[in-house]
Design brief:
This protein is an alpha/beta fold. It has two domains: about 5-205, HUPs (Rossmann fold); about 235-295, no CATH class. About 45% of the residues lie in helices and about 15% in strands. The chain has eleven helices and nine strands. The strands form two sheets. It has a six-stranded mixed beta sheet, with helices on both faces. It is globular. The chain starts with 6 loop residues before the first helix and ends with a strand.
Amino acid sequence: MRGARPERELERAIQDGGVVRPGERVLIACSGGPDSVALAAAMHAIAQPGQSDARLGYVNHGLRPSAWQDECVALQIAAQLELPIDIVSLDAGGQSEDRLRTARYDALVAIATRNGCGAIATAHHAEDQSETVLLALLRGAGPEGLRGMRARRRLAPSVDLIRPLLGIASERLREYCHVRALPYAVDPSNAQTALRRNAVREALAALRPLFPGLDAAVARAAGVIGEEGDGTRRAALRRTVREELERAVELRDIDFVHVEAAVRALEEGRTGTFHMKPGVALRIEGGVVRGIIPE
């Protein structure tokens, strides 16, 4: 995170991402870890002064002796941000990971419904998305699985699950906590590789030094698959650009960012010439593709 106010990069990313709707009452799931602490603080920072319509929710599974420390961190963050907080304790017993996740979401939905929150925000980030997509690939999942986690989906009647951080690296979230001097707890279970997700996490960590853009690439691919599956306008415009380019050049050596720049111009009805690769540019006029022109 660079610049005079590096913390603003995260806040702008959430603000411009469009996942959180203006005026929406949101329950922020805060585990006390760095990701959820950064999410809570950033969402509070971008709220209009005196108009923050958010609250925190902490679910204690009772699985670890240190869970009380996480709860203390969540309480401290709530006090620091002057946000209300709801705490629920669950009897985990011998439940599986899937059942624990279901119980956690059920508890959060109950809190959200009781307080009139239309959305529950979780701090799933770019690395989480990579893990989800890779696990789906290893299961042999089709397009629905390879789209990964959705940024927004219906979780219960009148309650959506939103994930504003899917394009954000976990390192940036920790940096945000450090810059703003925010306390956070570290979950020791993240180091256990007995669980499949944690084993995948370890494998991806070994790959990242060799492929620095790994998480961004996976998130991008998941987003494209999701938009295609939903039949969004952006997906249709992306096909328009790709089909125009395919008439003249090979797509494999055209960077995705160049295609997306042209797609945004089409969305916004702009006019311009967009570089695709050396010697090739796409001409757009008034939000309409006019053809390929030499550079």
